[in-house]
Amino acid sequence: MPSVFSHAIAAVAVGAVAVGGRSRAAVWGFGALCAVAPDLDVVTSFLFRIPYRDMLGHRGLSHSLLVAALLGVLVTAIVRRTVPESPGPATLWLFFFVATASHGLLDAMTNGELGVAFFAPFSDTRYFLPWRPILVSPISIHVFLGYRGVRVMWSELAWIWVPAALIFLTGLALRRRAVETRGGCSS
Ligand SMILES: [Zn+2]
Description:
Blueprint: H1 4-18, H2 24-36, H3 41-48, H4 65-82, H5 89-107, H6 141-144, H7 147-186
Helix pairs in contact: 1-2, 1-5, 1-7, 2-5, 4-5
Zinc ion is lined by residues 1, 38-39, 59, 63, 103, 107.
């Protein structure tokens, strides 16, 4: 898996394109949580001794498109109730779905562990993308802080952080331009 930071950053980049308005920072924050959530399966697998290859194991059901869709519904309901001036439910759901699904997509671009069960619970087939440039992140904090962790961070910097920053800045620029255009039309 890429590190939790990289999953969160990817979601915020998508958020800059998909969600504007006064509540955007709060909505992006919820999107970042959605993008990190699938890896809670590391905790449940450890607690309940679930084998990695099991559908409930790491990169199984929690990384599926179905769970991304359902989590999108749940988080949309929470945001609509708790965040003032939030966007409409369709925009929120789409953002939270893409933010959550981006986690599996990035995992499927890593060079290690098992693939991602995108279509669980209907199929337990694990998938990787044909292109896998991201070094897999060690789960152990001790290993993460060593030389291998440095190599992983460089890999994530190049393949996730830099593209995410470009997407983020493009999203902000497009939204600012749209606001200016609307302002120009109305004056
Ligand atoms: Zn993962």
